[in-house]
Design a protein that fits this description.
This protein is 50% helix and 20% strand. It has 7 helices and 5 strands. Strands 1-5-4 form a 3-stranded antiparallel β-sheet. It is globular.
């Protein structure tokens, strides 16, 4: 008989697989277009929780090199993971994981949103009020860790970090 811990682990894995199979590519494509977690949630036809969307978007941003858990100046090489759709001779479709090493280029900006949100939520939320709704949703929709991460310096991040 399975323990409760094993049952919970299985349910969590099954849930992740279901979300990935049903909406994973759509979620990643919408994230690449700049949609926030909230916007992705509104656009999906398949019912997916905001938490699941947030986790999938976060993993995609990490995999694509948009966000790094370390300073890219110190370690410019990163393994990028993508998935290719493969069809066998009988028409069965599957996905193959492809890993490649890339050099992270461009400028990154340090972000400590998770730490700031945890330390003083009210003050951080007041600070975010100066942003437009989409930029605020972007920051609040992702599961920022409690340590500093590095985000590609793009238009959105320029607007967000201008608050500092």
């Amino acid at each position: 008989m399975k323990s409760e811990m094993e049952e919970g682990y299985f349910q969590k894995a099954l849930s992740r697989f279901t979300v990935e199979f049903a909406a994973g590519n759509a979620i990643r494509a919408l994230a690449d277009k700049g949609c926030t977690v909230e916007e992705i949630h509104e656009r999906l036809a398949f019912p997916v929780s905001k938490k699941a969307i947030s986790e999938l978007v976060w993993a995609h941003l990490l995999d694509s090199g948009t966000i790094c858990l370390y300073d890219p100046k110190e370690q410019p090489e990163k393994i990028i993971t993508t998935y290719e759709k493969v069809q066998n001779a009988y028409g069965k479709v599957s996905f193959r994981q492809v890993r490649r090493s890339v050099t992270l280029e461009g400028e990154y900006v340090a972000c400590d949103f998770g730490k700031r949100l945890y330390q003083n939520r009210e003050a951080f939320l007041r600070e975010l009020q100066a942003l437009d709704e989409k930029d605020r949703e972007y920051v609040l929709g992702l599961p920022w860790p409690l340590e500093t991460v590095w985000h590609v310096r793009n238009e959105r991040m320029e607007r967000i970090i201008s608050l500092r």
